[in-house]
């Protein structure tokens, strides 16, 4: 069984954060930006008059 002490656990977490931190932050920022952009696009579509629907009738 692998026993990891407090110091070793801190080192493992620190190294993981240093190695993968920027990647995780970039991924989260992209997800947030995509969500905000999708929200703005949907909002714009709702605010625009529905002229295209009138042409079909």
What's a concise summary of this model?
By secondary structure, the chain is mainly alpha-helical. The protein has a domain at 22-46. The chain has helices at 6-47, 51-56.
Question: In words, what does this structure look like?
Answer:
The chain has 57 residues and is an all-alpha fold. It has a domain at 22-46. It contains two helices and no strands. The protein is rod-shaped and about 70 Å long. The model has no long low-confidence stretch (mean pLDDT 82).
Report the β-strand fraction as a percent range: under 5%
The count of DSSP E runs of length 2 or more, i.e. the number of strands, is 0
| Cα gyration radius (Å) | 24 Å
Work out the helix count.
2
Largest sheet: none
Helix content: over 70%
Low-confidence regions: none
Order of helix and strand elements from N to C terminus: HH
Average pLDDT works out at 82
Termini distance? 73 Å
Structural class, by secondary structure, is mainly alpha
Structural shape: rod-shaped
Helices and strands in order:
Layout: H1 6-47, H2 51-56
Features of this protein?
57 residues, mainly alpha, 2 helices, 84% helix
